[in-house]
Design a protein that fits this description.
By secondary structure, the protein is α+β, with helices and mostly antiparallel strands. The protein is built from 15 helices and 7 strands. It has a 4-stranded antiparallel β-sheet with strand order 2-1-3-4, covered by helices on one side.
């Protein structure tokens, strides 16, 4: 069964369906988009939009007849547009203003290079899976194997673009990526620096290697170890976000989108105050400048320290792990790291057996060991 509806696009980007007497008002119908919808039992719903009501009615009649006769009748937009067209439009309209715009664009350009010539109607789950597997089989620019998580981030970028094409642009009636199985990711790693209690003292070796430069490397690493801040949060700091007197750092752009105030104490605060002595305290300037090669500088320091299987994000794990081993409750660890829920910090629970034992002992003394 076919139906036709007139819709007006609102200033906020949403659509409003005209009803009743509104359909008799030329001032409204003149600017309306006519959407035809064909629903037949046992077949997916098909939709297409037109500028004229007559075109919508004709399309609906032909489509319904074709479905009843068992013909394949793909959407007009999906036939004439390619994935490359979709990605170009998405990058132009949706990427500006995103915090991850550069990363999102890079991911989508990968899909455009591989499948940009493919018409949307011919874009299949099989084709997407094949390209994902090719991505995972290709080393990163740093020569490392790509992880399943990387594959899922690329799939997520494509999924969002296709979702916009379905919901906002009406180029597709459904997204083929909805039938693509995500890569299975291993549980998050908890690699952290040894502090010397087991004879290796990776922490001291890394800091000594950082002393060899660049000059910003040691204070950045110290902040990461002491606060658990992410690399982007540290390198994004400006002097106006730093209160050296109280030892607080204000993060305005965080991964979860909420402002976070981070305390800096002890040796990390001393490092930051010393850094302020050799840097111009222009409030609008970044605290750490000249960090375009930071990734390579950190990797070289790790190599000089003779530390294996360690990346910058593991400094965040190191901070959280030592908090747990010091008996900090998971709720406090989550607050320090900027997590809204406990799910991301449960991986550190096993590192505080003494603390958990004390909690159980206090509970048992009160509940089980009292007067019977």
């Amino acid at each position: 069964m076919a139906s036709i509806e007139a819709r007006l696009k609102q200033s906020d980007g949403t659509w409003r369906t005209l009803r009743g007497d509104e359909l008799k008002d030329p001032s409204l119908t003149r600017n309306a988009t006519w959407r035809a919808m064909v629903r037949l039992k046992g077949h997916p719903t098909r939709t297409e939009s037109f500028e004229r009501k007559r075109d919508a009615e004709q399309w609906a009649q032909k489509t319904e007849a074709a479905i009843r006769e068992g013909q394949r009748f793909p959407e007009r937009a999906a036939l004439r547009r390619t994935l490359g067209d979709l990605i170009d439009k998405y990058i132009a309209e949706k990427c500006p203003g995103r915090k991850d715009a550069q990363t999102r664009q890079q991911q989508l350009e990968f899909w455009r290079e591989k499948l940009g010539h493919t018409s949307l109607v011919d874009l299949t789950p099989g084709a997407i899976n094949k390209v994902t597997n090719e991505l995972l089989a290709t080393p990163s620019r740093y020569g490392r194997p790509r992880s399943p998580a990387t594959g899922n981030r690329y799939l997520a970028a494509l999924s969002h673009a296709l979702g916009v094409a379905v919901k906002e642009w009406e180029w597709l009636e459904s997204s083929p990526i909805s039938r693509v199985t995500k890569q299975r990711e291993p549980r998050g790693r908890t690699r952290y620096l040894d502090d010397g209690k087991h004879g290796t003292d990776e922490r001291a070796r890394l800091l000594a290697a950082c002393d060899e430069g660049p000059a910003y490397l040691r204070p950045v690493v110290m902040l990461a170890l002491a606060t658990g801040m992410r690399r982007g949060e540290i390198l994004g700091l400006r002097w106006r976000d730093v209160d050296l007197a109280s030892g607080t750092l204000t993060l305005w752009e965080t991964k979860n989108g909420e402002r976070r105030v981070v305390p800096a104490t002890g040796a990390a605060l001393d490092e930051l105050r010393a850094w302020a002595q050799v840097q111009p305290l222009d409030r609008s300037a970044h605290v750490f400048t000249g960090t375009t090669s930071f990734h390579h500088a950190f990797e070289r320091a790790v190599a000089r320290a003779g530390i294996e299987d360690f990346n910058f994000h593991d400094l965040r794990h190191t901070c959280a792990s030592h908090l747990a081993m010091s008996g900090a409750p998971l709720l406090d660890i989550a607050a320090i790291l900027g997590h809204k829920t406990l799910s991301m910090v449960k991986r550190y629970a096993h590192l505080s057996p003494t603390h958990l034992r004390n909690v159980l002992e206090r509970s048992n003394q009160r509940f089980l060991d009292g007067p019977g």
